[in-house]
Amino acid sequence: MALFRYPRPLPSEITPKEMYLSRRSLIGGAAAFTTLAGAANAASLKVHPWPYSGSLTPTPHEDVTHYNNFYEFGMDKGDPAAHSQDFHPLPWTLEITGLVRKPVRLDVEQLLRSPAIEERIYRMRCVEAWSMVIPWDGIPLASLLKDADPDPRATHVAFESVLRPSEMPGQNEALSGIQWPYVEGLRLDEAMNPLTLLALGIYGESLPNQNGAPLRLVVPWKYGFKGIKSIQRIRLLDHEPPATWNRLAPDEYGFYANVNPQVDHPRWSQATERVIGSHSLFGASRQPTLMFNGYGEQVADLYRGMDLRKNF
Amino acid sequence: MPEIRAPRSIGRGSALKRYWRLILYPIGMMPAAWLVWQGQHGDLGADPVNVFERSLGLWAFRFLLVCLALAPMRRFTGINLLRYRRLAGLLAFFYASLHLLAYVGLDHGFDWTVLWTDITHRYFIILGMSALILLIPLALTSNALSMRWLKRRWKLLHRLIYPAAILAGIHFFMSFKTLNGVSAPYLGVLALLLLSRFLPRSQTKNGA
Fold this sequence. Notes:
The structure holds two protein chains of two kinds.
Chain A: H1 17-36, E1 48-49, H2 61-66, H3 79-83, E2 93-98, E3 104-107, H4 108-111, E4 118-125, E5 130-140, H5 141-148, E6 156-160, E7 183-187, H6 188-192, E8 197-202, E9 205-206, E10 216-218, E11 233-237, H7 244-248, E12 272-275, E13 286-288, H8 296-299
Chain B: H1 15-40, H2 48-77, H3 85-107, H4 112-121, H5 123-140, H6 144-150, H7 152-157, H8 161-174, H9 183-196
Helix pairs in contact in B: 1-2, 1-3, 2-3, 2-8, 2-9, 3-5, 4-5, 5-8, 8-9
């Protein structure tokens, strides 16, 4: 079994210290600004920097918080920011149950004060062929799952989001055919991978409602829709659980949903991606999409011997 | 099928009326100008190319619906705006062409490998592209000269608007992940406009 290696930046990619410091102050500044600007539910988090983020430049805070897919609040990218103000993310309890020896009930307000929160800057690739870079603040999912002590029979992890039609206007939209609550799943080894994060914040502040408050999944080598938001329940199972988009359109959204430039979506190519953040119509940039979103060294082993065209 | 008549501009009509119609073309193009202006000023949001491309497509579809609405409107309400049908049709073609250009140039940077795969493999693209191709002969023969030259065949040729609208409708439906409050009304209107063609003429008051 190979040792896990975190994504090491190339020497040429390492940001000079002064730039790094100025970037941190920029991030801090952005966080302070939004806190002042009255994002009612945003609170500063105490976070440790994570040494493996490399030289990725985060997408502007404004775009990360105003360009979202969160159909519970509407299907337009601006809807989540516009229609999530009535959502109450706290108090919140996260359950970890199923095939575990020690079922866990976590008070998320306590989790938000956890000294284990790390800042991890990850690439985010949406299945719609756009991408961002997001500074998440979170805890590796593996550490929480270990606390629950998985039963050896467990092979998969099921995630379930929240059902609150009174606070989530999109859940009243009957036309879409989506069955609420949103559900997602991972294989247990994917869930235990050190890159898999339970995010509690972005940009050093607790998650805004539109980004999945109070806590969400981040699986950086998979398309964004795997990153289920506002999670209430995690269950360990001995079979593959259903996943919302896969259930709705299995030919378009696979269960694995690993970022793969060679396997196209039926309606568009996945070879390249539009980079969010330039706000420029005629100077917008497209960049090649990386296999496993650039995290191949960390995760390719999980899929050794599998036909990734079939298991897309 | 409703009676398709030549726009009145073929015959007489005051110079003022004729100029008035010319003024409507730039007015109809204003949404495109507005989108370009917004794009130049960074006002199209975080993913401007996508918004630009989709908005142009939506405008093309809107004008296509207007085009299809004028005949039933005259039939069921007596309001006759058929003389603006060419305007609506040409604007639909204008927006569909810009929509294609945005997809080819802005979205894919004239990457012909990607585009070729799209055009040959993806129903979503093939349907939209076919709709636009069907509109080309209609746009080319939208002038009085072609009408005189093609005579009755002109009418037949311009029935291509129906398959074009159906293809565009499916393409529009597919451009969203799910049916939703944005796309459903447009698709409903399209269905009504198409179905109105099948109502027997004797049942209507203004059929004459």
